[in-house]
Structure formats: C-alpha cells, structure tokens
Please model this.
Amino acid sequence: MNHHHHISTGERNSEAKKVTIIGSIFDFLLGVGKILAGFFYNSHALIIDGIHSFTDVFTDIFVVAISHYSNQEPDEEHPYGHEKFETLGTVAMGAILLATAGALLYETIERLFAVKEAVIPGKPALAMAFLSILVKEFLYHYTRRVGEKINSSLLIANAWHSRTDAISSIVVLGGIILSYFGYSYFDDIAAIIVAIFIGKIGWDFLTDSLGELAESSIDSDKVDEIEKSILKIDGVKGCHNLRTRKMGHKTLIDVNIEVDEFITVSEGHEISSWVAKFLTDNYQDVTDVTVHTDVEDDMDDNYQHTFTGLLPLRSGVISMLETCWKDLPVFEDAPFIKLHYIGRRINVDLLYRCQPQVKEEILNEKVKQVEWLGEVKIWTSYEDQPAP
Model:
C-alpha cells in the first residue's frame, strides 16, 4: 500500500493556478494563429480548430476561478468543504463544450453541402496545424501530471481537453494534406471530426461529473482494498455497510466495524479512531471517515436493524427487571449491571462484589416471558467479569 503526501490547500491553489495560466497563454496564441492561418490560407478546418483553442482559453479561466473556490477551507455553511464547486465547474465545462460542438457541427455540415469552388489550403496552414499538435501534446502531459499530483479531477479533465485539441489538429493536418491531392472536401470532413471530438469530451465531462453529484461510489476495486485494510486493524472482527462517495478531489467514507461484545465503549471508540486514522493516513484522497461501532453485522438477512423496532435503553430494561424480580433481593447489594444488545435481544450481566442471595436459574425463569430479554448471568466479583 502506498503512503501519500497530503498537499496543503495553498499548494493545490498555487499549482492549479500556475499550470492553468501557462496553458491559457499557449491556447490564446494558438487560437489566434490557427484562425488567422485558416482565414488567409483557406482552411476551414483550421479555423474550427482555432475556435476549439479559444474554448480552451475560456475553460482555463473557468478552471482558475473554480479552483479558487473549491480549494477554500471548510466553513460554517460548508462543513465538508467546497470541493463540489470543482464538480459543478466540470459539469459547466462539459455543457459549454457540447454546445460549442453542436454549433460548429451544424455550420460545417452546411458548408460541406454548399456549392463552392474548390480551394487548396496554403502551406502555412499546414505548418500551423503541426505546431498545434506539438504544443497541445506538451500541455496535455504537463497539465495531467500536475492534476494527478494535486488529485484534481478538474485539472485532469482540462488536460484531456488539451489532448483532444492535439488529436483534432492531427485530423486537420490530415485534411489539409489530402486537399493538396485534390480532395478539398476533406478539409470540411476534418472540421466535422474535430467538432465531434469536442462534443465527445464535453459529454464525458458532463456524465462523469453528474455521476459524482449523484453521490456515486469510487472504483469497486479500491472499495475492496479499503475493506481488506480495515479488517487488518487490531480489534476489528468484521466490517459491513462500507459506503464511499466523491466530493471533488476528496473521498468520504462511511463504514460499520464489528468489535467484541464484551469490550468497553471507550475501547470500541478507540478502535474506530484507529480505523479513521489509518484510512486518512494511507489514502491521499480520503479526508473524512465516519466509523460506526457494532458488535455484529446488523445488515445481514437474519438481523435487519430498523429504527421502528428498537430495543429499550438502560432505564427501561432496569424498570422491567425490577418489575419481574420485585419479590427477590436482586438489587439489595447494588450490583453493577451490564447490558449486551445482541441479535435483537438483551443479555444481562449482574456484577456483585460478594456472593448474592439469588440464583441465575430463578432470575431467568422470572424473565422468560419478556421476548427481548436474553440470558441473565451472575458474576460474583468484578474480577470474574467475562474477558474481552
């Protein structure tokens, strides 16, 4: 298992802003260059590709703004943090790309079927397309590396946006080359393919982010790995109801662990604290863990815990015992009473410092009509308590 370095909020902000500003400068220059080269040297595909680069500029600005808000510390109104701003930003980016792709696709298809004179793009258009491929491929690797370093889905999405721009420039390059051999309509076909690329990446951003907003779980293999890790922690007998959800670059975990029924509440709490600490220490994206401590799997088929049939708490149990044992000297020596809630029944331990005047058999006989009462046991000294 890998141990991860937790990156501070300031470091995440700084890294995200730096890579995005660098990317936006390149995108702006490429957009201007491609549109001018396409206009003056007769390549409609290159003009469309230039518009694609300008969508990158807008998304870069968007990424900087969203990263600023999503990386803010939790506050009173947002106790879990602001990471869903990042998810909402990715949704908006996907929607913008889809709309852009639709408009470009419509315009290019109309142009393809319009009667026009065949025009061969000039060589500078070819050079511009080649330069775009090199620059966008560099931006893809640079942005993705930083995105993975700071665990930002928004930056990784922006990196893939750069990769689609590089691929679209390859298509444009191919269309321009084919135009030199008399197939001028391939320039428009290349423009259509570029528009489809833009739409595909927009659709992916949109669907992935909407899934995250719908509280989708993390990868099932990672969930299995987390469960196996929990079971290795000292004192954990089992775990169930393990649930995960993404919130921006963070992962939130909710899990029920099973511990021995005879340990103290404080020991059970300490075990759950170790579970939470282990997960946050060993998984970089895990930032919030809620651990529920059980003594059995209350999610299995034999015992479905519901809030409509809860067992009585201590005061109600003691009141019932006093009623059942009213003619017996059970409480004269003030026993310490332990209650064990197991399998929809309550087992009772009576702890005495000296030999009591009552017998277990009589006590159990008196309470056998109470359906939620299990076994009653007597312990004649605190040292005789059942060992954990």
About this structure: The CA atoms of residues 347 and 375 lie 5 Å apart.
